[in-house]
Amino acid sequence: MKLSESTVNLLKNFSSINQSILFKEGSKLRTISVMKNILVEANIEEEFPKDFGIYDLNQFLNGLSLHSNPELDFARDEFVTIKEGKMRSKYFFADPTVIVSPPEKEIALPSEDVCFVLTSQQLEKLKKAASVYQLPDISAIGENGVVKLVARDKKNDTSNDFSIIVGETDEEFVFNFKEENLKILPGTYDVIVSQKLLSKFSSQNRDLIYYIALEPDSTYG
């Protein structure tokens, strides 16, 4: 089998969330951060023929990049053969017990309290502002009838900040995220936030969902 550029980019994103991954037979990919505060799942066009673990996903992807058009051969149980022309690489699988992997059951938000759309451009601006101003937090704040996303340092009242209005609301809330936890691929997302400190980012561009925990100092109502 061969991996599309889209799937390789998705796996690069997964490697930023957890360096290891447990692939499952079929076309669904899932991973969870070691701290268990980010979970992501996606359906891809390829179908894996078996379950297998990769301990260093970034290294595996770099190995694929040694080839211009690699083919993956899963004939052996203990490793995958990466083939192209006269070149061959053996990449050995990891013991699944050393990999932090998501629970089998599907995730469900405990409540759906705030919803908004985050466009690709808005996401890019927020991430860029957080980088330019060295801001560790991104907050979804409901006040004065609007929902705004604010890149800020919540512990410093005199820090620079950057905000974008993303919706309307009758509620008052402050939902805090660590900027470093928003490891999501570029794109437009339907965002649902639960006051029970969990959020869901569903991509409008592909079959891809991120579940991201909120910080415990978040408030609602």
Detailed description of the structure:
By secondary structure, the protein is an alpha+beta fold. It is built from 3 helices and 16 strands. The protein has helices at 5-17, 57-64, 120-132; strands at 21-23, 26-32, 38-48, 52-54, 71-73, 79-84, 87-92, 114-118, 137-143, 146-152, 162-168, 173-178, 189-194, 198-203, 208-213, 219-220. It is elongated, with a radius of gyration of 20 Å.
Summarize the structure.
This protein is of the alpha+beta class and 221 residues long. 15% of the residues lie in helices and 41% in strands.
Keywords:
15% helix; 6-stranded antiparallel β-sheet; 221 residues; elongated; alpha+beta; single chain
**Any low-confidence stretches, pLDDT <50, length ≥5?**
none
- Overall mean pLDDT: 97
Query: Which strand-content bin applies to the residues?
Result: 35-45%
Shape: elongated
The major pleated sheet works out as: 6 strands, antiparallel
Number of strands: 16
Walk me through the topology.
Elements: H1 5-17, E1 21-23, E2 26-32, E3 38-48, E4 52-54, H2 57-64, E5 71-73, E6 79-84, E7 87-92, E8 114-118, H3 120-132, E9 137-143, E10 146-152, E11 162-168, E12 173-178, E13 189-194, E14 198-203, E15 208-213, E16 219-220
Antiparallel strand pairs: 1-4, 2-3, 3-15, 5-6, 6-7, 8-13, 9-10, 9-12, 10-11, 12-16, 13-14, 14-15
